[in-house]
Amino acid sequence: MTDNPTNTAEGVDAPRRDFLLISTTTLGVAGVAMAAWPFIHSINPAKDVLALASTEVDLSAIEEGMAITVLWRGKPVFIRHRTAEEIKAAEDVDVADLRDPQSDADRVQKPQWLVAIGVCTHLGCIPAGQAIGDVKGEYDGWYCPCHGSHYDTSGRIRKGPAPFNLPIPPYTFTEESMIVIG
Amino acid sequence: MKRTQSSNRLVQWIDDRLPIFTYADHNVIAYPTPKNLNYWWNYGSLAGIILVIMLVTGIFLAMNYQPHADVAFASVERIVRDVNYGWLLRYLHTNGASMFFIVVYIHMFRGMYYGSYKAPRELLWMIGVTIYLIMMATAFMGYVLPWGQMSFWGATVITNLFSAFPWVGDYIVTWIWGGFSVDVPTINRFFVWHYLLPMVLVMVVVIHLWALHVHKSNNPLGIDIKTPQDMMPFHPFYTIKDLFGLGLFMIFFMYFVFFNPNFFGEPENYIPANPMVTPPHIVPEWYFLPFYAILRAVESKLGGVLLMFAGVLILYVLPWLDTSKVRSATYRPIYKQMFWIFFLNCIFLGYIGFHAPTDLLLGMEMLYWGQIATAYYFAHFLILMPLLGKFEKTKPLPNSIFEEVSKKCRAKED
């Protein structure tokens, strides 16, 4: 293939070639990145999934001392109508003693209502303690049967392997006893 | 074997253990290619790129598609309406199917015009026909998945083709369906095949390229590569030429995706499948129309089905039906005309396939036009091709690619 003048080094304008190579490569990489985005984004939550991302709950039917579990974003949310003793027990704890220090006031909007995501922060099981007769653990909150984590009446981790308190989902009171989670 | 020229020590280390760099150099970079390839040679690489686009869009569509008769239609609508960029993925995929066939048909006609199927490339051609068959099966099953009226009735009609076979026909159809009509098991298995066959396709494409790289590309002159002077390295010459062609083709492709996404589709397919009502006018996708015309040309169920399959399978024996030693139509004055008549006849068969058999053209029913065009289709292969090779007076072939290319260059300079 000796007769191809382009195959010889003579007469090659090297800076021009470098410019062409770098600019072509840059444009190519940018193009591929832009083309890749629709594919990457297509497996993010779709609009119908996002549309179901908030849940409205009517609290008026929950008696004091009772709890209900609602589904929010595919996960259970614990809503407990706490008794005066439960509130007192949660508030009397010395925050400094906690593994994941957080005061009860930081975890509730109205003291009688605790709203927490019911997924154990250890490995994702659902702790027991919602139904009457459930084992509620040593702190009268929730007890995770998988690996034995104990949560108190504020949903804070007190004993066992879980590292964090039960997370509090974003929620707002739209009426006296009506909340929207998410 | 010449080793990679890279001086990078990591490259050398890897190449010494797994010679991927040497392999790439031999097959893509320094790969010797005839100097005189024209733009009709772009369509092979274009087909490969569209295959990749189809695979990637298909994989991401499958992440949101649900192959169940009850929800398939709704899941496709959800992809278009709710999934992020789902409309783009779907329209790339559906229009991509049409683009794939356009490109592959051009690729096949190019092979026929320049005699690329002749010795020593018969197997290369036959593997290509196999690719085409797998494409047709994949496209058909993909069209069923949105579960609209055309999906459902297309599936019903095409699977019923197998009922034409004596004695076993009905059992075969029941077996394909997994029931007594196109239903839940059918769409489920069609989805599996639609996902699996492209993977098979990729493997067959690799074999196609393997066979290609043994004797290298044919060329517009249809003469053998004789000296290194006849060739150029693939990179950068043909990588750039292929990329340029790709750019033009993508403009064509994206016009449909963004501005006319349902151009190739049937509005009927936006009506959910209804096993109780057949649409008044069933047509297959455009790329099947010529064969659909052949199917309907014979007033015999089995005859039509056999003829239609024969229409595709005859391509396998084309290398032996064509008795001419000269490859390129450039040097075959009569074949060149026969080729274009054959090409127009294929288009005409498609036109006939699109119309109802009772539609009139120049006062004659499509049915009879279909019979004439079908007869010509087979006559081209079975009568014209063997006879032309014996009686055609071909033009003298040039001595070498290099000589011909140099002559052209000089002519340009003058």
Question: Would you kindly provide a written description of the structure presented here, covering whatever features stand out?
Answer:
The complex is a heterodimer of chains A (182) and B (414). By secondary structure, chain A is of the alpha+beta class. Chain A has three helices and nine strands. Chain A has two domains: 5-42; 50-181, Rieske [2Fe-2S] iron-sulphur domain (Rieske Iron-sulfur Protein, 3-layer Sandwich), CATH 2.102.10.10. Chain A has helices at residues 14-42, 47-51, 84-91; strands at 55-58, 67-72, 75-81, 113-117, 140-144, 149-152, 157-159, 171-175, 178-181. Chain A has a three-stranded antiparallel sheet with strand order 1-9-8, with no helix packed on it. A three-stranded antiparallel sheet of chain A has the order 2-3-4, with no helix packed on it. The longest helix of chain A has 29 residues, at 14-42. Chain B has 16 helices and four strands. Chain B has helices at residues 9-17, 20-29, 43-62, 72-81, 86-113, 122-144, 149-160, 169-177, 184-215, 234-259, 289-297, 301-313, 318-321, 333-354, 366-391, 401-413; strands spanning 32-34, 231-233, 360-361, 364-365. In chain B, the strands form two sheets. In chain B, strands 1-2 form a two-stranded antiparallel ribbon. A two-stranded antiparallel ribbon of chain B has the order 3-4. The longest helix of chain B is centred in the middle third of the chain and has 32 residues, at 184-215. Chain B is globular and about 70 Å long. The A-B interface holds A 1, 3-4, 7, 37-39, 41-44, 46-49 and B 32, 56-57, 60, 63-64, 78, 81-86, 88-89, 228-229, 231-233.
